[in-house]
Write a structure and sequence with these properties.
- With 335 residues, the protein is α/β, with parallel strands linked by helices.
- It contains eleven helices and twelve strands.
- Helix 1 crosses helix 7, helix 2 packs across helix 4 and helix 4 runs parallel beside helix 5.
- The radius of gyration is 19 Å and the shape is globular.
- It starts with a strand and ends in a 6-residue tail after the last helix.
- It binds nicotinamide-adenine-dinucleotide.
- The site of nicotinamide-adenine-dinucleotide has 31 residues, from helix 1, strand 2, helix 4, strand 5 and strand 7.
- Nicotinamide-adenine-dinucleotide binds next to helix 1, strand 2, helix 4, strand 5 and strand 7.
Length: 335
Amino acid sequence: MKILVTGGAGFIGANFIHYILEKYPEDKVINLDALTYAGNLDNLKDVENNPNYEFVHGDITDKKLVNNLVKNVDVVVHFAAESHVDRSIEDSDAFVKTNVNGTLNLLEACKSAGWRNGTSPAGEKRFHHISTDEVYGSLKKDEPAFNEKTAYDPRSPYSASKASSDHLVRSYFHTHKLPITISNCSNNYGPYQFPEKLIPLFVTNLIEGKKIPIYGTGENIRDWLHVKDHCIAIDKIVRDGRIGETYCIGGNAEKTNLEITHKILKLMNADENSIKYVEDRKGHDKRYAINFSKIKNELDWEPSISFEEGIKETVEWYKNNQDWWKRIKNGEYRK
Ligand SMILES: NC(=O)c1ccc[n+]([C@@H]2O[C@H](COP(=O)([O-])OP(=O)(O)OC[C@H]3O[C@@H](n4cnc5c(N)ncnc54)[C@H](O)[C@@H]3O)[C@@H](O)[C@H]2O)c1
């Protein structure tokens, strides 16, 4: 299988490329990435000389480039996005440009290349779109978890841009018979996550002896999934998921931000004095939770790494890879 991965120099994309190259030595991966502040080729240093891996520095909004790349692959796995909610609150432009226009450009390229559901053998051509549980809005404490039928209710510019892209992907299936699948996943954690996101920010701040900032009272709830389990789920969908379908992916690990904080503090032998409570994020969603029974029943996927095990291993990774995140935090990598 020849796969075009967009955004492969980012957190989940890089983990996915590692996973595919290791599991399928016969597969070829092309990584198209614009190397924004979040893209980092250090994430892929160990595969850069692999003959089955190719890096293309470019933007998913570049029509000519994307048209040429799509012609030569079987599958697109589309991760590239502006992904940080706080940045979308400060400035939404890049979110619309990449998440909406960039996705549309990729869909158009697949359409122009003649990708049609039903005319190509099952599994031969597929556009798989990576999305988030945030498109479903915010849950109250006792409301049932999101599933594939939950109505969209995005509430941040980030989630609104991801929701728009999901709708476009689905519309290309219905209108143009494009062979697509979509997955909406909960919060990921693990190696190579940019240290602006909660878990790597807290772990690296503690190593540096800095305070860890908690929004509001820290009672917001998120569901957490180890990035490797997300990669396994995506791989199953790409190979066996039904065309036109959406799959919700979750970790069965709902935690308040305070619970996560206490867990990290304990693992790092630090205490409450390291916490700094800061003004809450604007429009901060209360709770996300995922019902993943569809992917469990259809594709036999469920999380394999418990939160306890995953967070321990993740803290160790950031302790053992200080050069990686210090270059980013010191601004040595780029910008
Ligand atoms: N991180 C999570 O917890 C999570 C959860 C669910 C879904 N997602 C989705 O997964 C995907 C990947 O998330 P991530 O956390 O790895 O993001 P990330 O910010 O770590 O990486 C994004 C990558 O996309 C690249 N990129 C950005 N704009 C581009 C453009 N115009 N053209 C080409 N490349 C571009 C960046 O350089 C970077 O390498 C996103 O679509 C995100 O919405 C993330």
